[in-house]
Amino acid sequence: MPDKLTLHEYSKSGNCYKIRLTAAILGVPLETRQYDILKGETRTPEFLKNVNSNGRIPVLQIGEGEDVRFLPESNAACWYLASGSDLIPQDRFAQADMLRWMFFEQYNHEPNVATLRFWLCFVGDDNLSDEQRAQIPTKRANGLAALELMDGELADRPFLCGENATLADITLFAYSHVAHEAGFELNALTNLSAWIARMKAMPGFTPMD
User: Fold this and answer.
1) 1 pLDDT band (50/70/90 cuts)?
2) In which order are the strands placed within the sheet that holds 31-34?
3) What is the pLDDT of residue 209?
4) pTM beyond cutoff 0.85
5) Maximum separation of any 2 CA atoms in the chain, in Å
6) CA–CA gap between residue 10 and residue 203 (Å, rounded)
7) Which of 13, 89, 121, 163 is most solvent-facing, going by the fewest CB within 10 Å?
8) What phi and psi, each to the nearest 5 degrees, are found at residue 77?
């Protein structure tokens, strides 16, 4: 991967972390540029014009100068880094199965587990709006359902798609292993907890900041 890679990120974000973790496991050099999302640093005119018009991070910057390209969306960036590696299975069904877990992460898992973690750990309960507080019970129930589903699926295999870790595991690990910060109790989810331990034992593993 000859192009210089720079991750525009907020280091405490799981969506940013999953890209750093993918790069670390693959041994791909990755520089980072930090933004404080609580101060609106991804909503400046410069950022919107030059990095991501959607005003969000992470964004993977590929190259520099006239040939620079910017790739938003965490799972797309993970795919770019892992393309051609063992983290993406070659079998057609296995690859589709991996993708369904990555879609599950963005649709069922992240909107509940990650949102609660952000609200409770970074925004703070006292700063939540009435609308946000009203959503907490539903997000907690949906987040627990997602974690329990994973726990059940991991009862008969070490990783989500079988015997080997894929991008499905990396993308879902990011917020699962810090779900306790959102108030989820993981001790009772023994299969999920064992999977978290296996992920932490992977060669090249790097912890979240």
Assistant:
1) low
2) 31-34, 5-9, 59-62, 69-72
3) 80
4) yes
5) 52
6) 24
7) 163
8) -65, -40
